[in-house]
Amino acid sequence: MRAHSDPPRFPTRGSSLKNLLRAFKRCAAAGAVILAAVSIQPAGASAASASTPPVVGGTRAAQGEFPFMVRLSMGCGGSLYAKDIVLTAAHCVSGSGNNTSITATAGVVDLQSSSAIKVKSTKVLQAPGYNGTGKDWALIKLAKPIELPTLKIADTTAYNSGTFTVAGWGAAREGGGQQRYLLKAQVPFVSDTSCKRSYPELVAGEEICAGFTEGGVDTCQGDSGGPMFRRDNTNAWIQVGIVSWGNGCARPNYPGVYTEVSTFAAAIKSAAAGL
After folding, report:
1. What separation in angstroms does the CA of 133 have from each of 143, 244, 266?
2. Residues 128 and 169 in one domain
3. Are 161 and 256 in the same domain?
4. Do 114 and 170 share a domain, yes or no?
5. CA–CA separation, 185 vs 76, rounded Å?
6. Residue 208, domain CATH
7. Domain membership of residue 141 as a residue range
8. Which of these is catalytic: 5, 39, 84, 91?
9. Do 196 and 107 share a structural domain?
10. Which of 132, 173, 256, 258 is deepest in the core (most CB within 10 A)?
């Protein structure tokens, strides 16, 4: 479910290449991100076959299972930080300021459902200092509240471990198109040390990795901006990551890279208050 673009997950992110990776991974054509769902690839599959892996697919989410999930019209995902504010990735938006061009769709797992709640944006706030490396978060102010449960964000590193849930309407295979139905999957935490072996350019402290060594389950194109979450000590959902970038989708030894929400929790809360 990670947000890439139609091309495969990119190699590494060094500077311009990293930005390209990011833009691709989460974006579709013309800068739009195509959310990806879950693609399964047999363990041991070769890198050559990684671009067109056999798809087993993600598990379809039940209606109301993740009520905080939001689909954004530019091709990204997001979560309801507040009833009138969506938290997404910085690379999904073009900057900060007034913006009425984005439509947020919520309340359904089927994007074609007549019950879908659709609300326009009024403002966008891209993370201050975002330049394509780290700080990959943004807030979108909505024209009116969406009366659905919100997703709280982690403000400590206490939940940056274990098994996470990811969900999105992105491609079900690397290079594929968005899905009609919301898909979900679980991915395990990957330490910074291990992740740096795959991505030397990883910004430790600002990014968190998750995925299986053998690949097979991952976010993909069009999932960018969506949440990575888990249960907290009260059994409530808490967001620990934002789909950011990676090399292809579900490739062995290339986990997904997510914005580490706890690092930016204070900045996100302050920015939201300002909206």
Report:
1. 30, 10, 19
2. no
3. yes
4. no
5. 17
6. 2.40.10.10
7. 69-148
8. 91
9. no
10. 256
Residue 121 domain-assigned (yes or no): yes
CB atoms within 10 A of CB 206: 16
Same domain, 107 and 241: no
DSSP character for 36? B
Determine the pLDDT at residue 174. Answer: 85
**One of 5, 39, 121, 136 is an active-site residue; which one?**
136
The per-residue pLDDT for range 146-172, each reduced to its tens digit, is 999 999 999 999 999 999 999 999 988
Task: Find the DSSP H helices in 113-212.
Answer: 192-198
Q: What confidence score (pLDDT) does residue 253 get?
A: 96
pLDDT tens-place string over residues 38-67: 333 333 333 333 322 222 247 899 999 999
Q: Do 85 and 123 have their domain in common? A: yes
Instruction: Flag whether 6 is in a domain.
Output: no
Percent helix / strand / coil, the chain, rounded to 5? 15, 30, 55
Rounded CA gap, 241 and 247, in Å?
17
241 shares a domain with 212: yes
Q: How many domains does the chain have?
A: 2
- Say if residues 3 and 223 touch (Cβ distance below 8 Å): yes
C-alpha dist (Å) from residue 236 to 83, 153, 200, 229:
17, 11, 34, 10
91 is catalytic: yes
Residue 249 tokens, joined: 């989708």
